[in-house]
Amino acid sequence: MAAALKRTALRIGMIPADGIGREVLPAAQMAIEALGSAIPKPTFIPLLAGWEEFQKRGKALPDETVQILKNECDGAMFGAVSSPSHKVEGYSSPIVALRKHLDLYANVRPVSSVPGQKVDKIVDMVIVRENTECLYVKREKISDLPNGGKIAIAERQITSTASERIGKMAFEIALRRGQERSESTWEGWAHAQPKVTIIHKSNVLSVTDGLFRESVRKVGEADPRYKGIKIEEQIVDSMVYRLFREPEYFDVCVAPNLYGDIISDGAAALVGSLGLVPSVNAGDDFVMGEPVHGSAPDIEGKNIANPIASIRSAALLLSSLGYYGPAARITSAVDRVLLEGKHMTPDLGGRSTTTDVTEAVLKLI
């Protein structure tokens, strides 16, 4: 999306949604604004969505929000949503719906140690999660059994089309990471050769996961540009085990929707907190940044939510739009704050507020 560099203005939809999403998204906005003339003048468009929006007006994702994103925005930022754990008639997750409406078929979640930070094991991976199908198609039914009990069935969808395009996204990311390492003077990279690990459970789900595995591998083997990328596979349960034992082993991991969701949250524990891990929901025509953490109602309104995941997600958004240098400025500022260790929110063992951490990052941008 390098064409975005020719724009004279940058229009970003801002969807704070629920809980601490309303507290951390302003930090992302301020980080973008702090770049000044390094990017086109940004305009931030506030938009509604979320569980609280559903409770007020009966719709978690207003049609107006979707139309403005499609017709007026260059990209977007999403905060967090408080979806109920039980079925509520008429409610469906707005973030899942947004991914479908905007065809944001990939959720890209980098998880990495801070360069220069003293750690037991280097973490430097990107989890590329298919975003549109698997069990998240939400086709479930419940019926009565002859013995008086109940049976609940969930339909799982895997298509070759979705699997191939998420595979292509993963191989393109691995290709770019390999190029970045070859051009860098940094000697602490965990991977000399780019690698894509296909995550599946085809030893049990031979039809659905089998199709995912075969489709992704086909993409990697068919394109000569990917010849230098190592292709491996990992059964999802053994991958989780290895993730905690040998996190340095993984480079780019590509997974169906559910597995990707679970392993990326688990990977966040390796770097200290969900409050540090960013993501973008990406399609061919639109990108939306989203911190990996949830709405955290237990700390809502206390000014102690970690804003770093949201700020890093803003950097990922800018990078996806072609503003690589400005994005790197934000990332570098965050890394320096983490290295100094003076401004840490409670999830990292500190006593700093959301405001404290945001201000520390802004000073370094």
Automatic annotation (TrEMBL):
<dbReference type="InterPro" id="IPR019818">
    <property type="entry name" value="IsoCit/isopropylmalate_DH_CS"/>
</dbReference>
<keyword id="KW-0460">Magnesium</keyword>
<dbReference type="GO" id="GO:0000287">
    <property type="term" value="F:magnesium ion binding"/>
</dbReference>
<dbReference type="GO" id="GO:0009085">
    <property type="term" value="P:lysine biosynthetic process"/>
</dbReference>
<dbReference type="Pfam" id="PF00180">
    <property type="entry name" value="Iso_dh"/>
</dbReference>
<dbReference type="InterPro" id="IPR024084">
    <property type="entry name" value="IsoPropMal-DH-like_dom"/>
</dbReference>
<comment type="similarity">
    <text>Belongs to the isocitrate and isopropylmalate dehydrogenases family.</text>
</comment>
<dbReference type="GO" id="GO:0006102">
    <property type="term" value="P:isocitrate metabolic process"/>
</dbReference>
<dbReference type="GO" id="GO:0006099">
    <property type="term" value="P:tricarboxylic acid cycle"/>
</dbReference>
<dbReference type="GO" id="GO:0005739">
    <property type="term" value="C:mitochondrion"/>
</dbReference>
<dbReference type="GO" id="GO:0047046">
    <property type="term" value="F:homoisocitrate dehydrogenase activity"/>
</dbReference>
<dbReference type="GO" id="GO:0051287">
    <property type="term" value="F:NAD binding"/>
</dbReference>
<dbReference type="GO" id="GO:0004449">
    <property type="term" value="F:isocitrate dehydrogenase (NAD+) activity"/>
</dbReference>
<protein>
    <submittedName>
        <fullName>Homoisocitrate dehydrogenase</fullName>
    </submittedName>
</protein>
<feature type="domain" description="Isopropylmalate dehydrogenase-like">
    <location>
        <begin position="11"/>
        <end position="361"/>
    </location>
</feature>
